[in-house]
Amino acid sequence: MAIYDSKSSVSKERVNRIYSDLDLDFTRNPVTSDIVKLNDVDSVKRSVKNLIQTNHYERPFHPEIGSGVRGILFEPMTPLTAHILTRKIEDVIENFEPRARLTNVIAYPNLDRNAYEVSVEFYIVNMPTELVDLTLFLERLR
Questions:
Q1: Which of 1, 46, 110, 134 could form a disulfide with 120 if both were Cys (CB 3.0 to 4.6 A apart)?
Q2: Domain residue ranges of the chain, discontinuous segments joined by +
Q3: Does domain 18-139 have CATH number 3.10.450.40?
Q4: 109: β partners
Q5: What are the beta bridge partners of residue 115?
Q6: 0.85 cut: is pTM over it?
Q7: Are strands 100-110 and 37-39 parallel, antiparallel or unpaired?
Q8: In 106-133, which positions are buried (b, 16+ CB within 10 angstroms) versus exposed (e)?
Q9: Which pLDDT tens digit goes with each residue over 23-67?
């Protein structure tokens, strides 16, 4: 019976999900007056950006979610610091964003502005043929 039950519950068709999130800018849809909904690529890009900018203990009931990037931005700009920044971003995306398959993260130090330009490349799970490039400019704020 257990073998029969497990075989009957497995679906042979591939499930195609549409990822959606709320737009955190709270822009209003001009037709329905609701908050605009982000779909697929925009939704995953927003989630990755939020994960990178989140510190530990910022999310209620989930102190483990966070990257710790803000603390690194106050360190001297060296190649080692850029590598640590890259590793922290890779770790947070691999651990907490199951919709993204990370391929590359590069942090370019901008010495004149005392900031980093971070390029994150990943594939979305349901769209394995489309490479998504997210570029962020991380600078320290007081």
A1: 134
A2: 18-139
A3: yes
A4: 116
A5: 110, 139
A6: no
A7: unpaired
A8: ebebeeeeebbebebebbbeeeeeeebe
A9: 777 888 888 888 888 778 888 999 999 999 999 999 899 999 999
